[in-house]
Amino acid sequence: MNIDTINPSIISPQEELEEIIREYITPDKLVRKLQESKNLDEARSIELKVDSRKTSIGNVGKILPNLSQLNLNNSYFDSIRNLGSSFENLNILWACNCSIKELDGISSFNSLKKLYVNKNLISDLYSITMLENLETLNIESNLVSDIEQLEYLALCPSLKNLTIRNNPIMLKLKITIEKNEKS
């Protein structure tokens, strides 16, 4: 059996800093993405595909202060915290199929009304309890397995629409319902 070993290239701290800066989203980079609008204050919606291991998006909320819709579907970031805390006007966030493991940091999205985080690796919903304006939550195809996680959602006063299909909790709920029906 032949195993190839690849030695990682060694880069200096200066080269590492330059790489980080090069990968960081700047206003100029966003303007190129927003070719139809030169004024970033006018941008209300944007779709990005990012890998937080390579590119920081923590400053997008500051650069686009009036952003109300952000679509990050099929990106990569394991925590909502990677998005930063500057999305003061964000109403709708799509972050489906992004390998998200935790929702820590979501409480800084005060204006959020709709959250679509289906097809991720989320098991803990406690952070969502801080979203007083949340009306729609799609957590389909995640790893929610404890009834306590669903009980947290009762603390969201505006929540009207919930999609939880294809989570381990659904099997537990089905078994409970079937047992109650047989009794």
Automatic annotation (TrEMBL):
Recorded superkingdom: Eukaryota
Annotated protein name in UniProt: Outer arm dynein light chain 1
Source organism (scientific name): Piromyces finnis
